[in-house]
Amino acid sequence: MAAEVFVDAGVWSAAANPKDRDHQASAGAMREAAAEGLRPVTTNLVVAEAHALLVHRVHRTAALAFLRRVRAAPLVLVTSTPEREDRAIREWIERYDDQAFSLTDAVSFTVMKERGIQDALALDRHFGVAGFRIRPGP
User: Is residue 103 part of a domain?
Assistant: First the structure.
């Protein structure tokens, strides 16, 4: 099995938006991960969040282009399930009640634990709080 890296919404959105202040770092982190042979993993919740960011920050056509690119890309797209969400709520949102983890973040952490992924391409400091390595980082 190829080594994997989780890709969060902020990196997807910034990499797709050349005007985003984190564009260079995000696109560079994605290129580096690909050069290292890391297979990108994300969730349908993350894709939906990135799409929404692009709709509001750029334009709906850019958001649609992102959806088309992601769906055609060689990546692992994990679909959230009620069982996975229940586990995410218990293990991350309830357990870490001092943190403002979103459901999308908690499901992302759950998927990372399930798949043994240690690195996240993320701009969200919560990945570090949850014990994962972040690049390019917040």
Answer: yes
- Angle at 85 (CA atoms; ends 80, 88), nearest 5 degrees: 120
Q: Which three-class secondary structure string do you get for the chain?
A: CCCEEEECHHHHHHHHCCCCCCHHHHHHHHHHHHHCCCEEEEEHHHHHHHHHHHHHHCCHHHHHHHHHHHHHCCCEEECCCHHHHHHHHHHHHHCCCCCCCCHHHHHHHHHHHHHCCCEEEECCCHHHHCCCEEEECC
Is residue 131 in a domain? yes
Q: Would 5 be classed as within a structural domain? A: no
Taking only the tens place, the pLDDT of each residue in 4-33 is 999 999 999 999 999 999 999 999 999 999
Domain range enclosing 68: 12-136
Model confidence pLDDT, tens digit, residues 92-106: 999 999 999 999 999
Assigned domain for 114 exists: yes
Q: Is omega for the bond preceding 138 within 30 degrees of 0, making it cis? A: no
CATH of the domain at 20: 3.40.50.1010
